[in-house]
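Q: Make up one entry.
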Amino acid sequence: YALYIRPVMYATDPYLGVRASDSYTFALLTTPTGPYYSKALRVKIETEYTRADDGGVGYAKTAGNYARSLYPFAEAMKDGFDQLIWTDAASHEYIEEAGTANLIFVIDGKLVTPSVRSTVLDGVTRDTIIHLAKKADIEVEERRVSVKEIIEGIENGKLTDAFAAGTAATVTPIGEIGYLGKSYTLPDASTRIVSAGIAKTLNDIRYGVIPDEYGWNWVL
C-alpha cells in the first residue's frame, strides 16, 4: 500500500467566457491506495479515436486529454478490455501510451518504449524504469514503436514482455492485446524476468529494503 498524491489546479476567476484565468487554486489530493490493477491487463489498440494530437498538450496531465478518452474507453470496457493503447493521430500506426500509463516492451532482450513527444507523457515511473534497466545492463531504446512491430513480435516470439508504467499502475503486466478484432496473448506474467525484476527493485527502493542511491525517496 502507498499514499497516492494527486496535484490539481483549476481556474478561479469570477468570469464566464473563453479566456485564460488570472487566478488559480492549487491543491493536493491524497488517499491511501493499494494496487491500481490486480491482474495482467487486457488492452485494445485503438485505431479510430485519438487521445492527443501533435501540437497539443498530450505530454501533460491536462483534463482535456482524459475527457476525450472517456467514450472510447467505455466502449472498450464493453468488450472486456481493461485499458486502451493509444496510437498516433496521423496514421494510427504507431504506439503512444495507455490510458493511465506509459508503455514499455521487451523485444529481442531490449527494453523498448515510445519516445517522448508532444503526444506522449514524460512519465516519472517511465524514467525511473529506464534508469533501473540501464543499471541492470539492459539495453534501452526510446524510439517510435509501430503497431506492426508489436503484433509481429508477439507472433514470432521476439516480444517477450509488455507492461504499463505509471504512478498508480507502477509496473503492471499486459496479458493480452486486442487489435482489429483479433486477440494476441503474451507470455504468462510469472515467466517474465525483466518486468518482474524491475518491479521488485522499484518496490524494494520505495520501502527501504535496499538503499536509495538515486535520491528518489523523501522522508516526511
The domain at 35-206 is CATH 3.20.10.10 (D-amino Acid Aminotransferase; Chain A, domain 2). DSSP finds five helices and twelve strands in the chain. The CA atoms of residues 54 and 169 lie 25 Å apart.
